[in-house]
Design goal:
Layout (H helix, E strand, L loop, with lengths): L1 E9 L8 E3 L1 E5 L3 E2 L22 E5 H11 L12 E4 L10 E4 L2 E8 L4 H7 L4 H4 L6 E7 L1 E4 L3 E4 L1
Parallel strand pairs: 5-6
Antiparallel strand pairs: 1-2, 1-6, 1-11, 3-4, 3-10, 5-9, 7-8, 7-11, 8-9
Length: about 160
């Protein structure tokens, strides 16, 4: 299964708007350089060793379907996931290792939407629109650069 990275977004601080990037470095045990979770400062950061927020991905197709089904609109990055990918079913990668650009990651947890997202976007229906299609939280198991246009390949 092969997909493509369409967008990369990071937010430097909790609550900060996501900023687009052409590329980013994925670092084992830390996350993405420039992202709030790299320094464990995001809204959902924890004091334990939970690293499932190293990297988050969402399917472009899921966003498009949610927009059509619920008459909502997402600006790129508004979903607050780091990578928007196309052509790969993320739910099937739960518990699996796969390559994103030069990095190797493992699907750790489904990213079900939360009320925080709906409050941030101030648009009713966003949370419901993304149920079961909110993406995948991953642990970075091999550091590497990720760029727009890179392949997403299951190993």
């Amino acid at each position: 299964m092969t997909g493509t990275v369409e967008h990369i977004h990071v937010a430097g601080e909790a609550g900060a708007p996501p900023e687009p990037r052409e590329s980013v470095e994925a670092v084992v045990g830390k996350g993405l350089t420039g992202d709030r979770y790299f320094e464990n400062e995001g809204t959902f950061s924890t004091d334990d060793e939970d690293r499932t927020r190293d990297l988050t991905l969402i399917e472009a197709e899921a966003i498009e379907q949610a927009e059509a089904d619920y008459d909502v609109s997402f600006e790129p990055g508004a979903h607050r996931r780091n990578l928007t990918v196309r052509g790969v079913g993320l739910n099937r990668l739960l518990g699996e290792r796969f390559r994103v650009g030069d990095a190797v990651v493992e699907g750790a947890e489904l990213c079900e939407p939360c009320t925080y997202l709906e409050r941030r976007l101030e648009e009713k229906g966003i949370q419901e629109a993304l149920v079961h299609r909110g993406g995948l939280r991953c642990e970075i198991v091999e550091s590497g650069e990720i760029a727009v246009g890179d392949d997403v390949v299951s190993e």
